[in-house]
Design a protein that fits this description.
Layout: E1 4-21, E2 24-38, E3 44-49, H1 59-75, H2 80-83, H3 88-105, H4 110-114, E4 122-124, E5 127-129, H5 134-146, E6 151-155, H6 161-175, E7 180-184, H7 191-203, E8 206-210, H8 218-224, E9 230-233, H9 235-248, E10 253-256, H10 258-261, H11 264-276, E11 280-283, H12 290-301, E12 327-329, E13 332-334
Parallel strand pairs: 5-6, 6-7, 7-8, 8-9, 9-10, 10-11
Antiparallel strand pairs: 1-2, 2-3, 4-13, 12-13
Helix pairs in contact: 1-3, 5-6, 6-7
Length: 349
Amino acid sequence: MSRYDLEYRPFSLSLVEPLETASGTIDSRDGFLVRVTRADDGAVGYGEATPLPGWTESLADCEAALERAQAAFDSEEDDVLEAVDEAVAARYGVSLALADLEASSESTPLYRYYSPDALVARVPVNATVGDGSTEDTVAAARDAVERGFGCCKLKVGRRSVDADVERMRRVREAVGPEIELRADANGAWNYEEALEAVEAFDDLEVSLVEQPLPAGALEGHADLRGRGVGIGLDEGLLEHGVDAICEAQAADAVVLKPMALGGLDIAQQVATWVDQLGVTPLVTTTIDGVVARAGAVHLAASLPDPPACGLATGDLLAEDLGRDPVLFENGAAVVPQAKGLGVEGVWAE
């Protein structure tokens, strides 16, 4: 009998409304719920593999990788994580399920499985505001602030720079000077547009612009730094890696998406690495289901003094895989202290 048994089942989660970004429109999140069972004692762990086009492997390639992982468990001869190859979403799903199983067996929260000395009650989070009209953007930012968020990240890049600057200006007027504002362009601008935006955003006290230029433009991102607004790399991290980014001095922050990096273990290693090099790690989800989102919260909790992270994305979904164990209060995620992920009831027989 195999020591472990891996099962997976597909799901599709609709969004409350389409999320408009410079990279395209997201209508739903399709992926696979993963369950790993240990044969000798019946202990279980849950994971989630939810590919995102442009960031990870395709849905079909993810399923094929999960099939390879299943076969590796059955054979007891192959390394199950090596079996998923470069399929990062599948690797996240399998590695998360294994970590949840082990942490649950040790009766410890998942974040303490990765950082045994940590004891964290809350991690700060930002609200994500889609790239909608000025009126919709202002309304969404106001609502976020009323719900206690101290940081709002606006999606930008689908319209002219002037229009995005006006959107940001209107939001700043609506939320006041104490709220942290960020922008995320998903690589939509050329250098001249990005420079114009950064200089205007500096006047509006925007703290960070994520991926203002396409992922390949390390020198351009380096040139944009030092103008009052921090420069964050998201897609650029996946394309270039930490060494190249730091050598080029191209970023003040890097965005860590566990689904795109291939697991919490890899994301934590990257976070520790960049922090030692003076670059801020920002943990975000890829608008995932509750299992992957809970994993990202535990990752943020395992890091020392994380900044506001992009973890409050569950309300973008019209449906979910199960009850969310993470409460959001006053702009912070309350970290589950139950064993493992803290996720229950996601695998109905």
